[in-house]
Specification:
The chain is 5% helix and 48% strand. With 105 residues, the protein is mainly beta. The radius of gyration is 13 Å and the shape is globular.
Length: 105
């Protein structure tokens, strides 16, 4: 299900980009922008969007598919045709959900 919000948080941090649908059951391929692909799996909800059009989605299932690819199923996305509309969208999380940085970072 899409988690409704009036507007996205002010400080979203891009964590990846959806590159294509994956399979026929609504999964998407994501190219992570994180140091390790598995880091994207730490977030149970992603903000997905382009430009000023963003929506929050619950991640139903996700896994690392290869070194540079994560595959995920967003709540409410049950078939390939639905997954196609996400192609090219960014995946982001609010900065407040990221781990604290060390003083030397």
């Amino acid at each position: 299900m899409v988690l409704q919000a009036l507007k996205p948080p002010e400080k979203l941090v891009a964590m990846g980009r959806i590159t294509a649908p994956f399979g026929v059951k609504g999964w998407v391929k994501v190219q992570p922008l994180t140091a390790a692909a598995k880091n994207l799996l730490d977030y149970p909800r992603w903000w997905v969007g382009r430009g000023a059009d963003w929506q929050e989605y619950e991640i139903v299932e996700a896994r690392v598919q290869s070194v540079n690819t994560v595959v995920a199923r967003l709540a409410g996305c049950e078939e390939r045709e639905a997954a196609v509309r996400f192609r090219g969208a960014e995946v982001a999380v609010p900065r407040s959900q990221l781990p604290q940085t060390r003083p030397d970072e």
